[in-house]
Amino acid sequence: MSNHVFFIDPLLKLNLQKDSSLYLAHAVQKRGDQAFALFEEDFFYSNTGEIALKVRPIQLDDEDDFVKSVTLLHPETLKLEEINWFHMRLDPPFDGRYLRYLWILQALKERGLRIINDPDGILLFNEKLTAYSMARAHPTFVGASFEAFERSLDGDIIVKPLDLYQGKGVEKFSLTGLKREEKRQFFERKKVEMGGVVVAQPFIKEVASGEIRALFFDGLHLGSILKTPKQGDFLANIAQGASYKSTTLTPELHGECQKLCQRMGKHGIRFVAFDLLAGKISEANVTCPGLLVEVSKANHKNLAEEILTKL
Ligand SMILES: Nc1ncnc2c1ncn2[C@@H]1O[C@H](COP(=O)(O)OP(=O)(O)O)[C@@H](O)[C@H]1O
Ligand SMILES: [Mg+2]
Fold it and tell me: What pLDDT is recorded for position 290?
């Protein structure tokens, strides 16, 4: 029997039925293996003897193969060598707290812990800049310089933070007809809100007809959905009310994703959730790749089970 530990946010913060980590835990349970939850307050590293983590066995009830309810059983302790797979599943923001946990995970990895995704890779690849630095990428400004921002953009733009998720802090704005001082005021305000660095891009109109979420594991395409924003909206995040349906990838997009998977795979990134907008990669999510439930549902396949067979 294998032990899988899921390092997750408090259950209260999760949408139980749609949570990718719990969906994976459910697939673990169905195989007759054991899934455990690990919370921040029980996480540690020590070099003065044995490391045994306090974990809570997860018991899941399902309906039509999807998670219906979650029960956490009495805590147990697991020594590092008793953990077969450790799933790093904390959600962004990628901030000081996140960074500290990744450093601790690197130390645990040195002691033999097998971690998905590898903390080395998560540390190395920013989910957005990795996409923007590809040869085929949407025109993008990232930084704190107003002069460079002003030179790079005009018309309708999107501004967003570099380290958030689920459409949080993403805003549409028009620079048309604004005086330089007004642009500067807007930019300085965004800098304060976003911790010093602003991401800005021309507004891509094609978003109205949807953005693709494509899931890859070890460079293999597991499945994709087209996420379509609510009428009159531009956020293609399901957490913001976007609808979804099954879709396929063009050979070009498939090739682009594989290229990036190969690059990131060298640093231990195995599970990637891409956002593909208007024919280009716009995000390569590696911190806590999501929408496993939605992509599974739309494609009538249990992709959590598929991932477990590849471990
Ligand atoms: N340049 C853009 N033009 C139009 N819509 C955008 C643009 N950038 C982001 N969006 C919208 O905002 C959503 C969230 O942006 P994204 O870069 O995926 O960040 P995150 O999902 O991490 O919040 C996208 O799914 C898309 O709907
Ligand atoms: Mg996104």
Answer: 96
Residues 297, 213 share a domain: yes
Asked if pLDDT for residue 179 goes beyond 90, the answer is: yes
Centre of ligand 2 to C-alpha 206, Å, is 15
For ligand 1, say whether the CB of 282 is within 6 Å of any of its atoms.
yes
Question: Atom 8 of ligand 1 has which residue's CA nearest to it?
Answer: 158
Instruction: List the CATH number of the domain containing 292.
Output: 3.30.470.20
What order do you get walking across the sheet with 156-160 strand by strand? 141-143, 198-202, 156-160, 171-174
Residue 24 lies in a domain: yes
Q: Left if phi > 0, otherwise alpha if psi is -120 to 50, otherwise beta: which for 223?
A: left
Ligand 1: which atom is nearest the Cα of residue 285?
22
- 131 in a domain, yes or no? no
Per-residue pLDDT for 189 more than 90?
A: yes
Atom 10 (ligand 1): residue with closest C-alpha? 235
Q: How confident is the model at residue 86 (pLDDT cuts 50, 70, 90)?
A: very high
In the predicted structure, residue 218 carries a pLDDT above the cut 90:
yes
Give yes or no for residue 275 CB within 6 A of ligand 1: yes
Cβ–Cβ < 8 Å for 57, 73: yes
Domain interval for residue 221: 206-310
